[in-house]
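Incident review: delayed structure delivery

Summary: a single-chain prediction request sat in the queue longer than the usual turnaround. Root cause was a stuck worker, restarted by the on-call engineer. No data loss occurred. The affected request and its eventual output are reproduced below so the record is complete for anyone auditing the incident later.

Affected input:
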Amino acid sequence: MSAAAAPGMPPVPRRLSCDMSNSDRPANRPAHHPDVLRYTAFATDPAGGNPAGIVLDASGLGGADMLAVAADVGYSESAFLTPGPAALGQVGRAFTVRYFSPRAEVPFCGHATVAAAVALAERAGPGDFVFDTPAGTVPVSVVEAGDGVLRATLTSVEPRVEDAAPADVEEALGALGWRADELDPGLPPRISFAGARHLILAAATRARLADLAYDFDRLRTLMLRLDLTTVQLVWRESGTVFHARDPFPVGGVVEDPATGAAAAAFGAYARELGLVPAAAELTMHQGVDMGRPGVLTVTLREGDARVRVAGAAVRIPG
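Output delivered after worker restart:
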C-alpha cells in the first residue's frame, strides 16, 4: 500500500512507553479536556512549517489521556508540559515534557519543543527555558527577532551515530520503492540519534526526493524493529544547504512536515562523517513538497557534541 493510501490508525504499538495508570479509562476519553494551543514551528506563516498541539498544563493527565488528546488534535506530535522538578530550574521556566503522536509516545520532538518554548515566551517573556524530556534535559532559548517573531533554539542531548546494517537499508529502500543507485554515494546511510533515532538516506537528485510514495505498513514494521522515529530522506543542494522529507508511519502519520529531532540527528551525522567543519551552520528546507515549507537552522559548535536547532514558531489562528 502506498503512503497516499495509508489506512486508519490501528491500536497503539506495544513500544508505547506511557504511564498507563489510568489505562482502565478508554483511550479516547481523557480524564478532563485540557486547553490545547496550536502552533506551527519552523515557519512564520501558520500555513507552513510543522503544526503541534501544546498543553501548557498537563497536570492530572496520564499517558492514555495524553495519547487521546494527541489523536484528537491529529498533528504529527503534541507536547504536554507539567512543572519540572525543583532542581531543574526556575519556576515558570523549567518543565517536564512528554510528546505524543496520534499513535504513540515519542522520546523527543524538536518542532513541538520549539512551539512550546515560543508559547511559553509569549506568556513569560523571551529568555531561557529548560525541558526535562524522556530523552534527557533539553535547554531552549527564545529571542525576539527584529520583526517581532519569536525564534527558539533547542540544544540536543549528546548525539551518537551508528552504521546501518545493509539488510536494513535494503528493506528501507524496498519499502520506499527506491533503487540503491538512486542514493548519493557521498552521504552513506547511517542511524543517528540526538534525542530520537532516525535512519538517514540521501537521494542523489531532488527529483528522487520529491517523488515519495511508500509502503506504509512495510516501512512501519522495519522502523518498529529498529526503534526509529522517522526515516530522514535528504538531498544535498550545497555544502551547507539540504532538503529533507521524513516519513513517520510509526506515529500514524504519512510524513512529518518539519522535523527538529531529525535535523539535530542530521547535524551529528554531517559532523561524524566529516561533511562539514567542526563549527558550522546548516540550513534545512522541509515541507516544500507537502505545501508546508519550513526552514530549520542547525548549528554545530567546536568542542560541544550537542547540536542546536533553531526556528521560528507562530500560533495557528482559530
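Verification: Residues 110-124 form the longest helix (15 residues).
Action items: add queue-age alerting; document worker restart procedure.
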